[in-house]
Amino acid sequence: MVDTLEDRSRTQPPRYFRAKLELQKRIAALGHGDTLPAERRLADELGVSRTTLRKALAELSAEGVLRREHGSGTYVAPPKVVRVRQLTSLSEDFGVDGKSVTSRVIAVEHVTADSETQAALELPRGARVYRVTRLRIVDDEPLAIEVAHLRGPLRGLAGRLHADASLYEALRVHYDREIAAVEDTVETALAAPHEADMLDVPIGHPLLMVHRLGRDPEGTALEWTRSVYRGDRFKFVARATTGR
Length: 244
Hints:
elongated; six-stranded antiparallel beta sheet; 8 helices; 244 residues; alpha+beta
């Protein structure tokens, strides 16, 4: 049987993907922050067109392996930030690892709950909630936007949230409210213009979107939060026990 080029193309991965695999091997031998060769040189070394190379580089950038800076070059990105999903806040998760976690409070508002929030928090129509919008910054890099909807009353909340404050700690200390159980739903999303601007990424950049419903020990819904995380910089780990 004659092995034609067409037959081989059906069984081999696309050319850009083969270039991507070769790039991954090279990246493994580099350290974070190291620079890749210029595109023209790299394309010649890999034996591919610059168009093919750019597709491979774009995919690795979207996956958080590389960081491309216009006019500067392509760099090996640092390892992704790991967040362990549990009954803690972002501040508590990363503070344990010695990372610097700060917040930029964008807004603290007392608003009428929209239909989604009303349903999630099991509130009557027309009920008002506290909406807290924060930009979350880990080691001086903007990595997440959190919009928390909280059951009231929470008088003075705005004054009790500062740059290094944990929302969960504020609820515990100042309002005697404990988040005892949570349900997280994780989806993928693409950065809208305002999200891209806040996170310093291109419009359409891949994001991880997490909806969290938090309840107190009696089962009352206290928190409904929508968070978006940079997909190139975060990965999540969920831990559970089997009860044995």
